[in-house]
Queue: 2 jobs
Job 1
Amino acid sequence: MILLLCCMFVSGQRLHNAYREYESSELFNSVDAEGSDKQAALNAINLLEYQDIFGHPMVVNKYLLGYYYYTLLFDESDTQQLAFYFQNAYMLFSQTIKQEPTNAKALANLALLTWLNTQSLDEILPYVKQAHQFGKYNFRVHVKLSQLAEWIVESQQPIAHLPSLQEILGHHLRFGLEDRRSKQAVLDIINLNQSNKEAICQWLTTTDALKQARCD
């Protein structure tokens, strides 16, 4: 009887968590005209962080929660809040990797966070290599590493001494343009800044990719 009750409780908890995860995604992706991306993210976070009936803190989907915290970094001016969001995002992505070592999206996000924190090519390289290894043809990884490429170009740091990094980022730019699910997002990244676009176009080594990006 006790075993049956435990099984019922666990099953109910899983169903409850699945509902919270679904609702958080709906909230985050359906910002109305009067809402804001920031408030949507905060509302979604509140659904993924809660206390169970025993008062224990619960976290639903660490990767998704980390992603919501990550998005808040670009809509916050308070330095203390920025540090709080950054630390939570980094912690949750790191915990995701401990549980799922092949989670390429979390690895790509760790590369982005590490760049934001250090602007060090050497420090992002291990994350980029692993994200590429496990997400070589993942359209979400294409978008994340394309964003990283744009940030690196924006920094004007030389990258020629790390050919593997440039090769990997070039791969995700090219395949990001080929995949219909990531094409528009990658195009938006490439076209964000005209001077950066000229540098990024040099990484697009195929005729088709150059045409897709409208590199003149």
Note: Residues 101-212 form one domain.
Job 2
Amino acid sequence: MKEIRFRVPDMTCGHCEAAVRGALETLEGVESVAVSLETKEVTVQSIVELDLADLMGFVTAVGFTPEAF
């Protein structure tokens, strides 16, 4: 299982959390998405190699500004 982590500092509410999760859960190969509103961290687990820049692009497309660790 592959794991990618990044931050989304402009998540401020449950709706934000759901939007970020929804943007990532539909991607092919993604097994799970954990989003913490408290820490502003996103963890994506996948069965295939995913690109951090691509994942961050999907989050940007739904209106947020992700940051790599």
Note: DSSP finds two helices and four strands in the chain.
